[in-house]
Every structure is written in structure tokens, then in C-alpha cells.
TrEMBL record:
Originating organism: Corallococcus coralloides (strain ATCC 25202 / DSM 2259 / NBRC 100086 / M2) (Myxococcus coralloides)
Gene3D superfamilies, per the entry: Hotdog Thioesterase
Pfam family, one: 4HBT
SUPFAM superfamilies, sorted: Thioesterase/thiol ester dehydrase-isomerase
Origin superkingdom: Bacteria
GO MF annotation: an example: fatty acyl-CoA hydrolase activity
Matching InterPro entries: ACOT13, HotDog_dom_sf, PAAI_dom, Thioestr_dom
Keywords from the UniProt entry: Hydrolase
PANTHER family: ACYL-COENZYME A THIOESTERASE 13, THIOESTERASE SUPERFAMILY MEMBER-RELATED
Family statement drawn from the similarity comment of this UniProt entry: Belongs to the thioesterase PaaI family.
Protein known as: Thioesterase domain-containing protein
Length: 174
């Protein structure tokens, strides 16, 4: 019998209907929406439940997510998969942009660049991913992010470019 078969591990993930949050997003500014998720008044998106991260700071132009890496994040060579860092970076930077959007506006990632600078393991401890807006225009926004541990050690950094969707007549910066 293999060690894997002798020591099985399980993880159960539950989430609420994502349409509940999506419907609320259309009626709130980005900042109001993300703060409602942070307070638990609206459901976290399923990806956050799956990956195990949550917002710990939400302010205009800046969002911080926290995650505790675990074995369930591992890749085939026994380290946390880079997809965890990339997902955190994409989420934190995109949500930082979202905090600056008016009611009814949205965004999507056009480009994501992540630089990995240090490996992550299940015993790395809690990580914080900080996303901050660099530029918010009428159609395009950019943000930067940093993934650090509680001591400030850098694990990854990156940038994103997002397309902004504004409701008709909302105007916006160019």
C-alpha cells in the first residue's frame, strides 16, 4: 500500500450561490460591495472558498487578502503551486481596481504578470497579498501587487491591466 493510500487527506469546500453576490454587485459601488463581502454580509466568491483566502483590508484603491498555504495547494514536486500566488495577485489587484468603480461598473483582467521570488510551503505561515491601483482610466486600469509573509518577506510581485466596463452615461476618467 502506498503512503498516499495509507494517509488520505480530505478537504470539503462549501460556497453560496455566486449569483447572490453578482446581483448585489450591480447595485453597489465597488468599495461598498467588497466591504460587504469582508463583513460577511455578502458571500465570498467560490474561488476564495476553494483556495482559502479572504479580504482583511478594503479601502479605496487598495485591498489585502490573507491565505494560509496548506498541503491542498501543493503541486507535484511538493511545494505550493504558483497558481495560488497568481490567483491571489489577480484577485487583490483586480479588487483594488474594483474599489474605485461606481455602481454598476465592472472589470476583467486583460493581462496578469507575476514574478515568483521565493518558494511557498505549507509551513510558510500566513501570507498577505496587497493590491494597489496604479492608474484608473475610462476603459483601462492598472494595479500592482505584492505577496508577503507576516515578517514582510517577499514571495511574489506583479502587475495587472484590466478593462473597465462602465454603465451607460457613467462617464469616467480617460
Amino acid at each position: 500500500m502506498s503512503e498516499q493510500a495509507a494517509n488520505p487527506r480530505t478537504r470539503t469546500v462549501t460556497w453560496r450561490d455566486p449569483q447572490e453576490g453578482a446581483s448585489a454587485a450591480k447595485k453597489l459601488s465597488g468599495l461598498e460591495y467588497l466591504r460587504a463581502i469582508q463583513r460577511g454580509e455578502l458571500p465570498a466568491p467560490p474561488i476564495a472558498e476553494l483556495m482559502g483566502f479572504a479580504p482583511v483590508e478594503v479601502e479605496e484603491g487598495r485591498v489585502v487578502f490573507a491565505v494560509k498555504p496548506g498541503e491542498h495547494h501543493y503541486n507535484p514536486i511538493g511545494m505550493v503551486h504558483g497558481g495560488l500566488a497568481a490567483t491571489l495577485m489577480d484577485s487583490a489587484m483586480g479588487c483594488a481596481i474594483h474599489t474605485m468603480l461606481p455602481v454598476g461598473a465592472g472589470y476583467t483582467t486583460l493581462e496578469l504578470h507575476v514574478n515568483y521570488v521565493k518558494g511557498i510551503a505549507h509551513d510558510t505561515g500566513p501570507l498577505l497579498c496587497r493590491g494597489e491601483v496604479i492608474h484608473l482610466g475610462g476603459r483601462v486600469a492598472t494595479a500592482q501587487g505584492r505577496l508577503v509573509d507576516e515578517k514582510g518577506t517577499l514571495y511574489a510581485h506583479g502587475t495587472t491591466t484590466c478593462m473597465v466596463f462602465r454603465p451607460p452615461g457613467a462617464g469616467g476618467k480617460e
